[in-house]
From TrEMBL:
Keywords: Leucine-rich repeat, Membrane, Repeat, Signal, Transmembrane, Transmembrane helix. Residues 474-511 are annotated as: Disordered. It comes from Solanum verrucosum. It is a single-pass membrane protein. The keyword Membrane applies. Residues 1-20 form the signal peptide. It comes from the Eukaryota. InterPro entries: Leu-rich_rpt, LRR_dom_sf, Malectin-like_Carb-bd_dom. One of its GO terms (cellular component) is membrane. It is found in: Membrane. This is Malectin-like domain-containing protein. Residues 26-343 form the Malectin-like domain. PANTHER family: CARBOHYDRATE-BINDING PROTEIN OF THE ER PROTEIN, OS07G0107800 PROTEIN-RELATED.
Length: 590
């Protein structure tokens, strides 16, 4: 990402390769569905998209809009996530998360916390007492759903969110950055506009804030239609206005001092002529970074636009970009709109897929675990509260801490989580035999099954496993695998419909295979028939009892899948990039 590219987009109509029909608007903390008539946006309550949190209402004297009057706050768990499954794998989306504190808790203490998406760090959120703060990202979704998570980073500062919006974009938009990197919006400006522009003027509901500057003139286009069907498809209303200088000044410039540190950026500049020029008129200019030209001469078209973009360029807070009039131009430069993004690190592929799929099966079995959504390990260190993860890439789940989680019933097989080193299932109501698969986990060092209702023998695969510390105390129905009565009780106890442990299965198989040989060598021939009749009678009795145990209630457990129950921008936007006009000799840009 060290190299930089600067291209002039060809004025060709793009073919839309992916439909942009995703349009989800969640009014967090609200339970109602309604339409905002000013923007024609249909808002939903968020209860179907998140499994935790509390709804709160902003104090009435701090209300700024209906959408911002409610919020959802999270006072428990390290991180809490929203899940949105209206998206498609490989689709490009814009996500906007909005935060308005409004002193909802009466403490006059707006919190700070972490914002994440799909296991990736998004932003460190700093909310404000009386101002709306919002963050926006654009990226290509890697899965069949997306998650947005809030994580607590400071003691007694609880994350909250006021609104969450997801907008589908055409796949051709913002395509000059590798799909494995997200864009994080820093500024989006409609120069010369006197109002904020968004849906329905922009069908993708991007928010364009008004912008002007020092020694700047505002121009209004007299074009009735402007072709916006190419490039990143700015709305026509953004191109209806522009800023320029008077004829004595030659430069429009803006700085990057809203970026606190050096960053790699993606920047769009949009240019559209505001009137049909006479034959003796020319408007021509170049783009400069600091004192170096980075473009050929640009002649903005009428009733159309030219989009210039800068991609993978490292800038500092002191970097200055300028639109500079060429020597043969009879008219000063202009600019209609500007977008500035920083480019994120490579997107994660998430926690080991095998571990995630097995963890989901465990969550399906135990409803109490279904409230945890999102990547279980990422971004580090924000794991689920009850797991530990390795630092490998991808991370593996190395520990389950499920003591006192009110788990009941039998355990499903999660042997495919073969990186597990510690399993703590103590102080629950788990029953049935201790699963033999525990002994197959190659890295298992600690297994705590204390204070449950397990029955039968401890599998030999566990008792003979080197380097394993196991605690089975507090399970009154457990017995030694060497005790013959333990094996008999375990095999015939009502309700034990699980397969026997590995060691027990081996012994049963041996008895069955050798029984005819034993009979043939120790029983006189004339008694053989009566012996066989007696054996079949016993087997019939045991089969009847086993059949009865299979229909006992309470053996099946389950629950809905945890992922079916769907669960000012990057900084305070009190100002846009400082824009000014000047000539070469008397620069007033700061």
């Amino acid at each position: 990402m060290a190299s930089s590219h600067f291209l002039l987009l060809v004025l060709l109509v793009s073919v839309f390769s992916v439909s942009a029909d995703v349009f989800v608007s969640l009014d967090c903390g609200s339970s109602e569905a309604y339409t905002d008539h000013e923007t024609s946006i249909d808002w939903l309550g968020d209860a179907d998209y998140v499994a935790n949190g509390e709804s709160h209402v902003v104090q009435s004297n701090n209300s700024i809009s209906h959408v911002m009057d409610t919020l959802r706050v999270f006072t428990t768990r390290t991180k809490n996530c929203f899940l949105i499954d209206e998206v498609e794998k490989g689709g490009k989306v814009l996500i906007r998360a909005s935060f308005y504190y409004g002193n909802y808790d009466g403490k006059s203490n707006p919190p700070s916390f972490a914002l994440q998406f799909d296991g990736n760090h998004w932003a460190s959120v700093t909310t404000m007492s009386d101002q709306l703060v919002y963050y926006e990202t654009v990226y290509v979704v890697k899965g069949d759903y997306l998650t947005v998570c809030l994580a607590q980073t400071e003691e007694n500062q609880f994350p909250f969110i006021s609104a969450l919006e997801v907008r589908g974009l055409d796949s051709t938009m913002y395509s000059h950055v590798d799909d494995n990197h997200a864009l994080f919006l820093r500024r989006r400006v409609a120069f010369g506009s006197n109002k904020t522009i968004r849906n329905t003027d922009d069908p993708y509901d991007r928010i364009w804030t008004p912008g002007s500057g020092n020694l700047i003139e505002t121009l209004t286009s007299d074009a009735t239609t402007i072709d916006t069907s190419h490039g990143d498809q700015p709305p026509q209303q953004v191109l209806q206005n522009a800023i320029s200088t008077n004829n004595s000044l030659n430069i429009i410039s803006w700085n990057m001092n809203f970026l606190p540190i050096d960053n790699v950026i993606y920047m769009n500049m949009y240019f559209s002529e505001v009137t049909q020029l006479d034959v003796n008129q020319t408007r021509s200019f170049r783009i400069f970074q600091d004192n170096e030209s980075i473009s050929d001469p640009i002649l903005p078209p009428y009733e159309d636009f030219i989009q210039m973009y800068v991609s993978n360029l490292t800038v500092s807070p002191s970097t200055i970009f300028s639109v500079v009039r060429t020597t043969n131009s009879t008219l000063p430069p202009l600019i209609n709109a500007l977008e500035i993004f920083t480019i994120g690190n490579a997107l994660t592929d998430g926690t080991n897929t095998q571990d995630v799929e097995t963890l989901i099966s465990l969550q399906k079995e135990f409803e109490v675990l279904q409230g945890w959504i999102g990547d279980p390990c990422l971004p580090s260190p924000f794991t689920y509260d009850w797991i530990n993860c390795s630092s490998s890439d991808p991370p593996r789940i190395t520990a389950l801490y499920l003591s006192k989680f009110n788990l009941s019933g039998s355990l499903p097989d999660f042997s495919s989580m073969d990186a597990l080193e510690t399993i703590d299932l103590s102080n629950n109501d788990l029953d049935g035999p201790i699963p033999d698969f525990f002994g197959t986990l190659p890295n298992l060092k600690e297994l705590n099954l204390a204070n449950n209702k397990f029955s039968g023998p401890v599998p030999a695969s566990l008792s003979n496993k080197n380097g394993l510390t196991i605690d089975t105390s507090g399970n009154s129905d457990l017995c030694s695998s060497s005790d013959e009565s333990c094996q008999n009780n375990d095999s015939s106890s009502p309700g034990n419909d699980q397969p026997a442990t590995g060691s027990t299965k081996k012994n049963n198989k041996k008895k069955k295979n050798n029984m005819p040989i034993i009979l043939g060598t120790t029983i006189p021939a004339f008694l053989l028939v009566w012996a066989i009749v007696g054996i079949f009678a016993m087997l019939h009795y045991k089969k009847k009892r086993a059949t009865t145990s299979l229909v006992n209630p309470g053996q099946a457990s389950g629950g809905s899948t945890p992922f079916v129950n769907r669960v000012q921008m990057s900084e305070n936007f009190e100002k846009n990039p400082e824009v000014t006009a000047h000539d070469h000799e008397n620069s007033t840009n700061v």
